[in-house]
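FYI - complex with pyridoxal-5'-phosphate, inputs then prediction.
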Amino acid sequence: MSATTPLDVARIQADFPILKRQVNGKRLVYLDSASSSQKPQAVLDAMDRAYRESYANVHRGVYTIAEEATAAFEAARGKVAGFVHAREPREIVFTRNATESINLVAYTWARANLKAGDVIVLSHLEHHANVVPWHILAAERGLELRWIPLTADQRLDLTDLDRLLNGAKLLAITAMSNVVGTIVDVPLLVAAARAAGAHVLVDACQAVPQIPVDVTAWNADFVAFSSHKMLGPTGIGALWARAELLEAMPPFLGGGEMIRDVTTEGFSTNDIPWKFEAGTPAIVEAVGMGAAVDYLQAIGMDAVREHERALTEYTLAALRDRFGDRLHLYGPPNADDRGGAISFLFDGIHAHDVSQVVDEEGVCVRAGHHCAKPLMRVLGIPATTRASFGVYNDRADADALVDALVKAESFFSI
Ligand SMILES: Cc1ncc(COP(=O)(O)O)c(C=O)c1O
């Protein structure tokens, strides 16, 4: 056990081959997990084995390795379902990523159910993945988008929630900000949306890798997330939705896999979830995502959450101590209210310049708008530098960030 967090981080670090490499002659300090996480050996091995030993297309062949590939693919769905507490595996639709999961809802459920004048409620925290699909639909259908504003420390300002939800058909909301870390009270918002008669989509892209997520307890309608942020491979994500809702929705993409029958006159759709999985799916990536679930479950999501919270608390305090008012820290001041993403900005130094200088010290942080331009506009800035944590980060990484920032600050000689 580490002295600083409930995780044995040294042992976890040994599971991530990339952490053994050096960058610019320095130890790699990877602080960009909110963008995409690194992958443990167990995920790489599971994918390698799938390609080497039982690779074939799924759901079609009756020969042995095709059956093995299908079993591994569907077992991965079962693991993902169990991880987020879906009632059954068929409530998990495999997609390319959270962006595609949200677009699936926009192109199917929303186009079948929303008409001119209908209202969708979003928040100023949202990632573009949970903004642009609704702008496209709003322009096409003549919908109204309403926005939940933020408090001064970038929590949702719920003062006017009832008025915003009045007459709304959909609340589409993040569970955790990828920019400022804010944890959103999903059950409270779901209850308010339900009382107003609205459906709820939760963007859980940041939440699923960091906090225990129970989609059934959340009682939302749709939950979207990506494998690559939760220690799994790129190219696969998931949409959870209640089975009855998926049954009632029209299909998304058309092609193989998603049909029951096709004639020259038309087609009928497959059962859920395959009705929404047209074409050859990301078979080996699904296996990798399942292995990532196994890895996170072996650690325990309560321990992961406490680790992220404690490391965020430590880093916020270290940044405040070292830089005081010269460094603007965004998001809720208390680590209890936030996940492991810390956005900051030095007075008079551009976010990108900071990230370039700390890279010379081996520290990987992201600079930019983080695909959240509405939030940047509210903050009145074009960009922040963001450090974000995964299960493999520890206090030494936070210290390396602070030391690298000291160098950046003196380089730009404030
Ligand atoms: C909160 C949030 N939503 C959605 C996305 C989009 O995820 P993806 O690029 O995997 O589709 C991200 C990615 O950064 C995110 O942080």
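Residues 35, 97-99, 127, 129-130, 174, 178, 203, 205-206, 226, 237, 371 surround pyridoxal-5'-phosphate (CB under 6 Å). Residues 205 and 255 are 27 Å apart (CA to CA).
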